[in-house]
Amino acid sequence: NELLFAEIEYMQKRELELQNDNMYLRNKIAENERAQQQMNMLPSTTEYEVM
Q: What is the gyration radius of the CA atoms in the chain, in angstroms?
């Protein structure tokens, strides 16, 4: 019974850690997508080099 309680407690902590990691990664992905969109809006340097 004690062991079961300890395992449940551990699993709950682990779940919170995973949720936090998940949020962190989602924010990183969103950040990278925003940066990529901004890069796509800028004219590429190769266009200037061709002229």
A: 22
